[in-house]
Design goal:
Layout (H helix, E strand, L loop, with lengths): L16 H6 L14 H11 L11 H6 L10 E6 L9 H7 L1 H15 L3 E6 L4 H16 L15 E6 L9 H8 L23 E5 H13 L1 H6 L8 E7 L6 E6 L4 H8 L9 E5 L33 E6 L4 H15 L5 H4 L1 H14 L4 H14 L7 H15 L1 H9 L12 H5 L5
Helix pairs in contact: 5-6, 5-8, 11-13, 11-15, 13-14, 14-15
Length: 434
């Protein structure tokens, strides 16, 4: 497999534009700028590239929804608001190779005939944003941005936008509100951003990893890209592994690599004396997979065969040193804090889910609480304004199914008897954090 996203990571510092071009950077633009946009879009669509932010939707198909006669200005928004627990792939490219992002933005913007691109960056990545801003200035000085790029009659500006924070900013319409200076609440859809986005103009929103693949697909071809994957998948992906493994980190591998290979070969396997209980395959808002699922290919159609999803490819490992219910409470502490508070099912429902889970840990739960927790999840899941709460409930709903006997044990034992269990203050005081 040819590494693309991490091909320059071995350098001790991010490459400046001269070093980047000497290493082959921006060469793809020779085969993109000036070419018929319709043909480039068809190539991208036929390549099989799918959105790397978690949705896994066909990138070329999504872009084809932009009307040919769409009014200008047209905006491209690159989502680098990486705040999902267990996900840290995007920041690697930001900090280690910012010109790869810019090359992807230029190529993508040309296809979409975008007039301006915004790169929306998580607030904690301030140093990375500064490095990207410097790279943008280098690209502009080299004539790769600005007016009449390469005598094509096409203009492009890039704006590096640092987020004020909050996980909800990663939701594409909340992100648009944040750029416009409003509170980061999601918008109603339809209209979808591709028809009416930033300031009412056509706007395409994609994850940064997706954007980085675009120029290399168009430069090296469909066959090359598809050969980078394995087990029926196309392309590469930066997988991330966190939790009790010997070598936690990030690994650019063929999309479709099995979970077993990622965890036990590249991440070094579990710590000595530990046993795998389960793992989240794609960040905190995905469903649990079990040890029996280790040989499932990690691509967009693999985890769904066992009721999970690939998400960001950020694998969070859970071993026998943890109580799974404690693990779920920890996740809910994050999601209850990060809710934007716009809709009642999310704002009030998620804290109540957390409260219900804590009852099992403190010994206050009985059999009716299992039914209450399931009913609560079933009410919240389809009745929220955006996908935030459904995502938050994915590990809870799957955890209740896959660790059901554990919930019964907590009831029978009048609480958690796992050696690692340390009740939180909220759980002890029986508080609901509304």
């Amino acid at each position: 497999m040819d590494k693309i996203l991490s091909r320059n990571f071995h350098h001790p510092h991010p490459l400046n534009i001269d070093e980047y071009q000497q290493a082959g950077g921006y060469r793809s633009l020779d085969s993109i700028i000036g070419q018929p946009r319709k043909e480039l879009l068809a190539t991208l669509k036929n390549s099989g590239l799918r959105g790397c932010g978690g949705a896994g939707f066909s990138t070329g198909l999504k872009w084809s929804f932009k009307a040919p006669d769409a009014p200008h200005p047209v905006y491209l928004v690159v989502n680098l608001d990486e705040a999902e627990p267990g996900s840290f792939k995007d920041r690697q490219v930001l900090y280690r190779d910012p010109h790869t992002i810019i090359e992807g933005v230029i190529a993508s913007s040309y296809i979409l005939e975008a007039d301006k691109a915004f790169i929306f960056i998580r607030g904690e990545y301030r140093k990375g944003a500064q490095g990207l801003e410097a790279a943008v200035n280098e690209a502009k000085a080299a004539g790769l941005l600005g007016y009449n790029i390469r005598n094509s009659g096409w203009n492009l500006e890039i704006d590096v936008h640092l987020s004020a924070g909050r996980y909800i900013c990663g939701e594409e319409t909340a992100l648009l509100n944040a750029i416009e200076g409003y509170r980061a609440n999601p918008r109603a859809k339809p209209p979808f951003p591709i028809a009416k986005g930033l300031w009412g103009s056509p706007t395409i929103v994609n994850n940064v990893e997706t954007i980085c693949h675009v120029p290399f697909i168009l430069h090296k071809g469909i066959e090359w890209f598809q050969n980078q994957g394995t087990n029926g998948a196309y392309g590469s992906h930066i997988f991330q592994v966190s939790g009790p493994v010997k070598n936690p980190g990030f690994f650019e591998l063929p999309l479709g690599t099995t979970a077993r290979e990622i965890i036990y070969e590249h991440a070094g396997g579990l710590l000595e004396g530990r046993e795998l209980i389960g793992f989240l395959p794609g960040g905190a808002s995905t469903q649990f997979m079990l040890p029996k699922d280790l040989d499932i290919p990690m691509h967009w159609d693999g985890p769904p065969t066992v009721g999970a999803r690939l998400g960001t490819g950020g694998i969070i490992v859970m071993d026998d040193s943890l109580c799974p219910i404690d693990f779920m409470i920890n996740l809910m502490q994050f999601f209850t804090r990060e809710s934007c508070g716009f809709c009642t099912p999310c704002r009030d429902g998620l804290p109540f889910v957390k409260y219900q889970l804590e009852k099992f840990e403190t010994g206050e739960a009985d059999m009716t609480d299992i039914d209450t927790l399931r009913e609560l999840c079933d009410i919240i899941y389809p009745n929220t304004f955006c996908a935030f709460a459904p995502g938050a409930l994915m590990p809870i709903k799957s955890g209740m199914d896959k660790f059901e006997t554990l919930f019964h044990q907590h009831i029978d034992n009048h609480g958690c008897t796992h050696p690692s269990h340390t009740p939180s203050t909220d759980a002890i005081n029986n508080k609901v954090d509304c």
